[in-house]
Amino acid sequence: MSEVLRVLVVDDDDLMRAGLRAVLSSDDRIAVVGEAADGREAVTRARALLPDVVLMDVRMPQQDGIAATRELSAVVPEVRVLILTTFEDDDYVFGALNAGASGFLLKRTRPEQLIEAIHTVAAGESLLSPSVTRTVIDRMTTATPPDPETTRRLRVLTARERDVLTLVARGLSNAEIATELFVEESTVKTHMKRILPKLKLRDRVQAVILAYETGMVRPGENAR
């Protein structure tokens, strides 16, 4: 990842793209390297420009943001996708996350939060707006029980790694997990770097989903 974050802005609304460019340009650590008005153009431009982060709308002509995210995850997996939309419908949330998005924010997010989200996603973390996190957890309440093979995946984790994953799924940050487990924050980061490849997961969002799907964590258990 470059020192100045390279961002591709994708939205079919010209005014929205201009507004997002203006917001992001207020941070000298971010450079908007391009724009796209639909999913197909987004994939083409991302392959050519290799931005650190693609700020992706959902509903667009030609190809929607979810399909574009899925394609980007396959052809340029190093590019992080942050979904920014007016919709928080379950199907959009899960469609985006399953397609490979690293974050999901609503367009009513404040400018400073959007800028922070860009940096968070570019650093390899993932995030969801609070209302979207609630949607993910609520959806898990009615999720179909996992098959035995999915549950067996957790057996590769050590006891401490399971502790860390449980707290991640409950919504704690690395710093909060460190306090909870009486370890250094760097230790928590190390555990996460081991957990994700062991479980063949891309990021924390997928880890949270897996934890709920397998019953490791259940809705209402101090979820944030």
Automatic annotation (TrEMBL):
Modified-residue entries (4-aspartylphosphate), positions: 57
Residues making up the signal peptide according to the UniProt record: none
Gene Ontology MF terms in the entry: DNA binding
Keywords from the named record: DNA-binding, Phosphoprotein, Transcription, Transcription regulation
Domain of life from the UniProt record: Bacteria
A Pfam family hit: GerE
The Response regulatory domain, residue ranges: 6-122
GO BP, sorted A to Z: phosphorelay signal transduction system; regulation of DNA-templated transcription
CDD domains in UniProt: LuxR_C_like (cd06170), REC_NarL-like (cd17535)
SUPFAM superfamilies associated with the record: C-terminal effector domain of the bipartite response regulators, CheY-like
Domain HTH luxR-type: 150-215
Gene3D superfamilies the UniProt entry points to: 3.40.50.2300
Protein name according to UniProt: DNA-binding NarL/FixJ family response regulator
